[in-house]
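Support request from a user on the community tier.

User writes: "When I paste my structure tokens into the form, the page sometimes reloads and wipes my input. The last time it worked, I copied everything first. Here is what I submitted, just in case something in the input itself triggers the reload:"
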């Protein structure tokens, strides 16, 4: 099935089983002996080779169609809401991040992804915030997970407040339409 989608590419699917999708950086590693250091180096090289195999393979061979569709939806949502989220991020991000945005590109990308997933895709904010924190733990410096958590919680609080206002406006419009329909129905019956 996958072979016809990517002709000529050989992908060892056993490497998917070996690949650690949740490998987070940890504290610095120390060794007591040269043998331990050599063993650790061999282990890291093996993990790097597996990671290179998985990450360089065509996405259609590695990821399910469901995941690829979700990824496409999420990226389109990010593009769609980019401008409004830039303004929101400018309000919730700490001044240190705004002064050097190039140094915080990963953090800003995580915020854009999370905000788009909440607003456009409708994923529950608790899930999205936890995923964003996990991404920050894996790819950003030590303070980023806490700051991203705070930024997203502020965003959710502001967003849910505006959503309630929008829902209230929608309910008022719906009530008005129902009233107009009732009047129209009354006139229709009166002038028969």
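"...and here is what came back when it finally went through:"
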């Amino acid at each position: 099935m996958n072979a016809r989608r990517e002709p000529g590419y050989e992908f060892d699917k056993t490497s998917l089983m070996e690949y650690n999708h949740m490998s987070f950086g940890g504290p610095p590693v120390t060794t007591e002996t040269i043998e331990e250091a050599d063993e650790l180096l061999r282990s890291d090289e093996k993990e790097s080779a597996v990671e290179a195999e998985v990450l360089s393979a065509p996405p259609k061979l590695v990821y399910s169609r469901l995941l690829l569709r979700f990824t496409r939806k999420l990226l389109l949502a990010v593009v769609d809401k980019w401008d409004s989220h830039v303004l929101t991020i400018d309000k919730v991000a700490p001044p240190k991040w705004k002064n050097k945005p190039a140094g915080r590109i990963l953090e800003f990308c995580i915020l854009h992804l999370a905000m788009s997933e909440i607003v456009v895709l409708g994923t529950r904010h608790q899930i999205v915030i936890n995923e964003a924190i996990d991404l920050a733990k894996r790819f950003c410096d030590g303070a980023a997970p806490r700051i991203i958590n705070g930024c997203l919680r502020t965003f959710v609080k502001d967003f849910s407040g505006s959503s309630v206002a929008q829902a209230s406006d929608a309910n008022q419009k719906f009530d008005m339409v129902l009233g107009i329909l009732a009047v129209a129905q009354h006139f229709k019956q009166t002038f028969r």
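Agent notes: The reload is a front-end session timeout and is unrelated to the input. The chain is about 75% helix and 0% strand. The chain has a mean pLDDT of 81. Escalated to web team.
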